[in-house]
Amino acid sequence: QVQLVESGGGLVQAGGSLRLSCAASGSAFRLGDMGWYRQAPGKQRELVATITTGGSANYADSVKGRFTISRDNAKRTVYLQMNSLKPEDTAVYYCNARYTVSPRVSYWGQGTQVTVSS
Question: What does DSSP assign to residue 30?
C-alpha cells in the first residue's frame, strides 16, 4: 500500500524558514511527478509547487523566490524548503505523488501543519 509520510512542519516566526520532507513507500514502481499543496482554514486546497522526475519545478506565484522544491529519487523523497515565511503561508501542507505506471492516480500524505506567527 502506497504511503506518503510528511515531516518538518511546525511553528515559526515571520521571516523564518522550515523544510518539509515527504517520503514515499509501499510501491516499487517509479515515481513520477511529486508536489506540495496547502490548505488554509476556510479555503480550498491549492498548489504550492510540483517537480518532475527530471527535476523541472513549477511554483505558485505566491511562493516564487521564497520556496524551493527538490527531490531525491534514490530516497523516494520530495522536499520543500520554505524561506521568508509569511503569516499567509499558514496552512496544512500536503505531499502529492504519482507513479509513472499509473499517472492518473494521485496519492496524498496526511498533511503537516505549518504556522507562521507575525
Answer: P
Task: Provide Rg for the chain, Cα atoms.
Answer: 14
Closest CA to 6 of 18, 42, 105: 18
> Hunting for cell 517509479 — which residue is that?
30
Distance of alpha carbon 56 from its chain centroid, rounded?
15
Quick one: which of 26, 35, 33 has its CA closest to 1?
26
Note whether 36 and 109 are within 8 A (CB): no
- For each of the chain's 118 residues, which pLDDT tens digit applies? 899 999 999 999 999 999 999 999 988 888 999 999 999 999 999 999 999 999 999 999 999 999 999 999 999 999 999 999 999 999 999 999 999 888 899 999 999 999 999 9
Q: Which three cell numbers stand for residue 45?
A: 486546497
**Other C-beta atoms within 10 Å of 80: how many?**
26
